[in-house]
Amino acid sequence: MEWKSLASGDYVVGLEPANSSVYGRAYHEENGNLHTIKPFAREKNRLVITILEGEELVRTEEEAQALAGKEE
To answer: Are 48 and 64 in contact (CB under 8 A)?
Structure first.
């Protein structure tokens, strides 16, 4: 789950583990796709964060706009 604090003079982004999306637990229970694990079970996830700068950022933004059909 991602959350943001946009308070004046403060910008924080948090990433936290969750077993539902922004739709909430009830939504996933109703749709039968709530992620669960058994008691004492373990689950390992890998998170890769990439920071783009300069030309690489510009090129990626242009590619994203083209994919979205918003080429300028």
So the answer is: no
